[in-house]
């Protein structure tokens, strides 16, 4: 019996939890720390600017991925990671995209 397969099957439930729901909770908690008071203190232009920057960054990340013939979902994953916050966003977005294997 292959040791790596035995270890993988033994730890699969924990790895699945760490790969799927845990990053989602982490991203939600990161977003929750920005309170309504903070947003209103900064003024109404702030949320509009944040949304505009997010959309532009998504486009800038997605277009080259498609130009390089990357899978549509993979290009979206990379763009989402860059636009939102990096590794935690990559894991969260990957967990909701369909499996393309």
From TrEMBL:
Pfam families: Cons_hypoth698
Membrane topology: Multi-pass membrane protein
Keywords: Cell membrane, Membrane, Transmembrane, Transmembrane helix
Cell location: Cell membrane
Domain of life: Bacteria
Transmembrane segment boundaries: 21-39, 45-63, 75-97
Family: Belongs to the UPF0324 family.
Name of protein: Sulfate exporter family transporter
């Amino acid at each position: 019996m292959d040791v790596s397969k035995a270890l993988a099957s033994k730890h699969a439930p924990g790895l699945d939890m760490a790969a799927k729901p845990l990053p989602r909770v982490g991203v939600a908690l990161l977003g929750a720390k920005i309170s309504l008071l903070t947003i209103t203190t900064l003024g109404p232009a702030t949320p509009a600017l944040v949304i505009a920057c997010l959309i532009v960054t998504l486009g800038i990340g997605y277009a080259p991925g498609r130009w390089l013939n990357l899978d549509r979902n993979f290009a979206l994953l990379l763009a989402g990671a860059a636009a939102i916050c990096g590794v935690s966003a990559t894991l969260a977005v990957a967990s909701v995209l369909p499996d393309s294997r």
